[in-house]
Design brief:
A hairpin with a 2-residue loop joins β2 and β3. The chain has about 375 residues and is mostly helical. The protein has 13 helices and three strands; from the N terminus they run αααααααααβββαααα.
């Protein structure tokens, strides 16, 4: 009986090892591929049925521009730690578009509906000039960046020009390809004479293009600044940090002397380097605040307020880190802040900043009585 049991267990193990190979026969592989292609075909057909062909083509062309921009910026994401968050940008952009897709579909339907609002009067001409000017500048900037890259290789001015050009092309492209009102038989409807003036911001095409502001403008955050501008921003932040740290220690009655970007302590000097300027926290918080505002907030003033709060929070937390490191160096010597202490302080400040931003969201989502009454009346 023991021998037969061993033989049975051996056969079961052999079948378990062979089962994956039996399951992946050519016929089954072909059927799986057929199911996958059928699902993709169904999704594509559903997309074509709900999105007008011109707008779908504009989305595809815009996606191509952004893929090229991501490829060009990836060089700086790889070599500059201040922009390493750029690797998250494509995924966050895709998530925001996916999250907003029901609103995008509703905005497309509103553009194609009879009587769809269009800017009138002076607003119509302002909108035409604005769209035409932004598109022209975008094309010129993209061409400039392309020629600069072809001649000088990867460079910060070239990458910035390409990014500005792609942004300037994409938003007008989506606006110009927004659907127009059509009748039941598919023929275009004449524009009705508006009973009252329609403002620029109530234009259905503007509302549609506004849904793509974050997926488009966020690439400007992940693009490196021109070296001259980046140097000036670094110096500005460094000076503010050094001045505030020296002032706080002086107010506490602690002997400290400021010598440019160096703080002279009794037991040695502490230099505030470019890495301590806070530009990394500034760009990271700008990106995080923009993403949280795009996903969780609806009102434009609230979004601007959250992004502004994120920038202020980045400066304050970096200042707190500088104060802590200076106090630690004053107590244990300048060499004590090298290595682990410096890195732990940086990660702690990053975690504190993220938690603070998340705690600010409920505050910005508060609905007051006026907002509630306006919502009920609407």
């Amino acid at each position: 009986m023991e021998v037969s049991c061993d033989i049975q267990l051996t056969d079961q193990r052999r079948l378990a090892r062979e089962r994956p190979f039996i399951c992946m026969t050519p016929a089954r592989q072909k059927r799986n591929l057929g199911l996958g292609s059928l699902a993709m075909s169904s999704t594509w057909n559903q997309l074509r049925a709900t999105v007008p062909a011109s707008f779908l083509a504009a989305l595809g062309l815009g996606a191509g521009f952004l893929v090229f921009v991501a490829w060009d910026q990836s060089h700086w994401w790889r070599i500059k730690e201040d922009y390493s968050f750029g690797w998250l940008v494509p995924f966050f952009v895709a998530f925001v578009v996916y999250d907003r897709w029901p609103r995008i579909s509703a905005a497309l339907a509103a553009c194609a509906a009879p009587g769809s609002p269009r800017a009138s009067g002076v607003g119509r001409w302002v909108l035409r000039v604005l769209v035409g000017g932004v598109l022209t500048v975008g094309v010129l900037m993209f061409l400039l960046g392309a020629f600069y890259r072809a001649g000088a290789g990867t460079s910060q001015p070239g990458t910035l020009a390409l990014t500005l050009g792609a942004v300037g092309i994409l938003l007008p492209l989506l606006f110009l390809n927004a659907p127009e009102p059509v009748a039941a038989d598919g023929s275009p409807l004449p524009r009705p004479d508006a009973a009252g003036a329609v403002s620029l911001f109530h234009d259905a095409r503007v509302r549609l293009a506004a849904l793509f502001l974050f997926p488009t403008l966020v690439w400007l955050v992940s693009a490196p600044m021109v070296s001259a501008v980046e140097t000036q921003v670094n110096l500005l932040l460094l000076r503010r940090v050094v001045v505030v740290v020296a002032f706080v220690f002086d107010m506490l009655g602690i002997a400290i002397e400021q010598q440019g970007n160096v703080l002279a302590l009794p037991n040695g000097n502490v230099g505030v380097e470019d890495a301590c300027s806070g530009i990394r926290s500034l760009t990271g918080c700008l990106f995080a605040g923009s993403f949280l505002a795009a996903v969780f907030l609806d009102s434009l003033p609230r979004k601007i307020a959250l992004v502004t709060s994120a920038l202020l929070l980045a400066f304050l937390t970096n200042l707190a880190r500088s104060l802590f490191l200076t106090a630690w160096a004053y107590q244990y010597g300048p060499h004590a802040i090298e290595g682990t202490v410096h890195d732990v302080a940086g990660y702690a400040v990053l975690g504190l900043t993220v938690v603070s931003l998340l705690c600010l969201l409920p505050l910005f989502n508060l609905r007051f009585n006026d907002d509630a009454s306006d919502a009920k009346s609407a």
